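Consortium newsletter contribution from the modelling node. Members have asked for a concrete example of what our holo predictions look like. Here is one, prepared for the adenosine-5'-triphosphate complex that several groups have been discussing at recent meetings.
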Amino acid sequence: MNSTNDGADALRLDGVRKDFGERHALQALSLKIAPGEVYALLGPNGAGKTTTLNLILGFLDPDAGRIEVAGIDVARDRLGARAKIAYLPETVMLHPQLDAIENLTYFALLGGRRIDASQARELLRQAGLQEEAHARRAGGFSKGMRQKVGLAIALAKDAQLLLLDEPTSGLDASAANDLSHGVRAASRRGVAVLMATHDLYRVKDVAHRLGILRAGRLLTERRTSELSASQIEALYLQELDAADPAPAGAAAA
Ligand SMILES: Nc1ncnc2c1ncn2[C@@H]1O[C@H](COP(=O)(O)OP(=O)(O)OP(=O)(O)O)[C@@H](O)[C@H]1O
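And here is the predicted structure:
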């Protein structure tokens, strides 16, 4: 896995700063993700994870720094950059009257891609949705099932960067495991993944690298292959303890 800067990064943030009034939500954040690499952004509430995703998506403008998605400068070409991104929000909203296949084909079309039912079935399978649910109305779906359809919608876009915001929050272990399979399948196809998460145990399973964010600062980055799941948890707690004890997001020099 190549995460050095060779000009082929799927995502690159350089010195990104975002303030909300007096509050420094992000301070000089720099990170790079290579094609096919899964990067977990860990951090407590208010660390700046969602702000990071919103800046990458172009929903917010940075106060300083530069963001590139597949080589496209988000500040110069917001729509061009967004076309390279698939985004799975924490809560996936589906049309309750449509079944999983219909939802997927409908949202894929909205995203600019026409897919047929057999392609839809394959994407739903990759995203971990069991066959018997493919033709069921989404109105009766659990959160985990909606997340899987959401992941299939994201995969349908054929994007180079997949952004996930708390993808496993509120999911049971089996649903979270299925979703992790889907993320790994995307990674194997060369899609880079940035996953904002609190789910430390899943990180070892899914991510190649992790970064720990606190109060808008990236405290450390590590390869998950170098750490066991319990070492990841220990590192997380140690980094947060060692960090400036100022409240998360409070103004700092
Ligand atoms: N629109 C906004 N206006 C003012 N402050 C904001 C806004 N959005 C985020 N913040 C602040 O910026 C900081 C970072 O918030 P952010 O939502 O990015 O954190 P997070 O790591 O995603 O947290 P969580 O895990 O709770 O989702 C917090 O202090 C938050 O209060």
